[in-house]
Amino acid sequence: MSESLLRMQPLNIVLAGPPGAGKSAVGRLLGERLNREFVDTDTLVERMAGKPIHQIFEEQGEPAFRQMEIEACRQVAEPADRVIACGGGALMDAGSRILMEAGGTLVCLTGEPEVLLARLGKDGSRPLLAGASPSERLQDLLEARKDTYDSIPAQVDTTSLSVEQVADRLVELPLAKRTVRMTASRPRPGYEVLLGEELISNLSALLEQAKLLPPYVVVSDSNVAPLYEEIIRATLECSFITVPAGENHKSQETLYQLYTTFLDSGVDRSSTVVALGGGVVLDLAGFAAATYMRGIRWAALPTTLLAVVDASLGGKVGINLAEGKNLIGAFHPPGVVLADLSTLATLPEVEARTGLAEMIKAALIGDADLFTSMESGPTWIGRSWIHRAIQLKLTIVDEDPQESGRREALNLGHTFAHALEATSRYRLPHGQAVAIGLLGATRLASALDRCESTLEDRVQEVLLRFGLPVRFSGLDTDRILDAMKQDKKRKQGRSRFVIPIRPGRVESGIEAPEALIRDVVDELREGTP
Ligand SMILES: NC(=O)c1ccc[n+]([C@@H]2O[C@H](COP(=O)([O-])OP(=O)(O)OC[C@H]3O[C@@H](n4cnc5c(N)ncnc54)[C@H](O)[C@@H]3O)[C@@H](O)[C@H]2O)c1
Ligand SMILES: [Zn+2]
Known about the structure:
This protein is α/β, with parallel strands linked by helices. It contains 21 helices and 16 strands. Helix 14 crosses helix 16 (383-399).
């Protein structure tokens, strides 16, 4: 997997919090203890400006300082095993926050206001506290930043601790490797989604925590199984089934092979199926679990970015028929989703880009901050983006577990994408088709005068920024339109599109005249501006 696109490790440790909490002193000591580089964004800003912070405030004002602070965050946020002391207000900027979280773990150092004040003493270099009543100024500042500080999951109260003691605490926190827990409440029964590392090596305990009990049968594919079979067998007593990799094996034949192997291995109603792989394995093994003996429990262990941010969430499972994709299926949520990010290290680049296309889709559907961060933030994918994309999908499926309304939004770009994929006889990878489809949907919105005027350019720029295609070549427009009609026949209706209105907002169920759709398809052909 290209180092440039997916960056999960090593992580920075980012210290945030109010002035006087000890970010710089603790950060310096922690850097020494962990043998990591220590950087202080305030120092970077001073270096950038060639003058101390109070002078920047006096001569250029706070907005200029904030701009420099954003620039400093950009310079250090990339995951690189640093300890970063992050200026007290820096994370108030949503872009900087996302950036810092993408490359590191945030820890908020807090403290009682009196103690913070005492520590700051008569430090005249704090322009935000300068003036007649530093105590009132500090209260105001704490009030204004409360939500930002409170929203950081890891907190260390430094009130009665020395710098050494705070550093001790931080060394103990499992910061470099952390697991985020999210909950999907629907489709019922709900399940937990764990995003982190060392999940596969702790599989046995994690399955038990989720009340998924033995006997276990692990299903994986021929690419993924060789990478993890040994590790899994070391932690879990299980039978292990390997199916051939690839979308064409999400089929009746493979499904029946699974059923027979389940029977041969004594899988019964008390068993748990553990699906380890990309969306193909999850859909297939999840559907086998949904139907075998009227349904048994299963766990989803996604190993592709697409499966982490999309296919493992929402409880849909199924297989393809020769007549079309995903025609047989069920809603059968897993008992737990264990997304072990370290598995993504071996993911081929083309697969990482497929996942990325779905993440851009997620941002357009419901996360404007994520979209902005993708426009101007890192050019690599970090955990906070993955985290946000998962949350977005969970929110949508929670609102509409059975896909009767809101969930349609997740189809953004997919009406075009499916038609392009089918017309190319699936030579065009899904992610590339989705990328072109996202631009198609935006062009359509633009032609219908429904979206912000700059949106088309913005979507195109983001796709290009991440090396995704925005044009197809060599396919016939009539055949693409036919493929859309086939798709719509199966859905017993007209082609209805999801269109973006602005980042973070889409509208579903949009119909458009065929001539217009034809124009949009033609404009997506290589060679058109
Ligand atoms: N159920 C849902 O809600 C849902 C949502 C989206 C997509 N899907 C389904 O997901 C499928 C696509 O999933 P996908 O993109 O993950 O494809 P995939 O499962 O075919 O995986 C892509 C390729 O990567 C390999 N692979 C997987 N993990 C790897 C790893 N860690 N290292 C190296 N190679 C690895 C696989 O063997 C395969 O060759 C489609 O069938 C689609 O219909 C389902
Ligand atoms: Zn998709």
